[in-house]
Design a protein that fits this description.
With 247 residues, this protein is mostly helical. The chain has one domain (16-224). The protein has helices at 34-37, 39-66, 71-90, 137-147, 167-182, 187-207, 234-237, and strands at residues 16-20, 113-117, 151-153, 160-162. It has a two-stranded antiparallel sheet with strand order 1-2. A two-stranded antiparallel ribbon has the order 3-4. Strand 3 and strand 4 form a beta hairpin. It is globular. It starts with 15 loop residues before the first strand and ends in a 10-residue tail after the last helix.
Amino acid sequence: MTTRSVPAASADSLPVRVEGRLDEPLSRWLWLVKWLLLIPHYIVLVFLGIAAGMLTVVAFFAILFSGRYPRSIFDFNVGVVRWFWRVAFYGYGTLGTDRYPPFTLKDVPDYPARLEIRYPERLSRGLVLVKWWLLAIPHFLVLALLSGGGLSSTDDGGGFGWHTPGLVDLLVLIAAVALMFTGRYVRGIFDFVMGMNRWVLRVAAYVLLMTDRYPPFRLDMGPAEPESEPLLRENELSVPTTPQSSA
C-alpha cells in the first residue's frame, strides 16, 4: 500500500487527530475470539499505562515550572495513546479491522487506525493545575451519559479506558451480530462509534496534559477528521466494494 507523510496541520485545526478506515471485508466470526487474541496487548498496555501515568506526573511539574512538556515524555505518551487506539479499533471499541495491531509506539502509516497529537511549544502553567480534573468534568459527564462512563482511570491510576457496558459497547455488539449474519458492518454504526472514540481520545489528550486546546462538545462522526487533510488517503477511507468474506 502506498503511503505518504503526515501533512502539517493548520493553526486553527484541532491538535488531536483520530482516524480509522473501515477495513472490509471483515470476518463474520473473528470478533468472537478477539478478546483472546488481544491478551498480549492488554498485558503490555497495563505496563505502558502505568509508565504513562508516572511520566505524566513528571510532565505536570515540568509544565508547572517551565511551561513546556518534555518532548521525550510527550512522544512516549502519544505512542501509548496511539497503541491504545489501535487495540480499541481492532477490538471491541470499534471492530473496524481484522488486521492485528502492531506492537509499537510509532505511527504505522498503512494501519487502518491512526492517531496524531501535535506537540505544543508552550503550555499554560495555571491550566495544568485544573484542566486534568476540574475543567474536564463536563466532558466526563457527557461521556458518562453517551458511553456508559466515558473516560476513566484504571485502578492503579496509571492509565485510562472505557467503562463497560455503554452505548458504544451496545452499538459494537449490534454491528458484530449484523456482521455475523450479513457479512457487512453497518456503516451508520461505524460512523457513530468513530465519533465517540474520537471524542474520548480528545479528552484523553487533554487530561494527559498534552494540549491546552479544550475538546469540542461535538460528535465528529466518520472515518476522517473534519476541517483537516486526512492522515489516510481518500481511497483508504472509502468502503471497499470487494465481496464480503464468509470466514
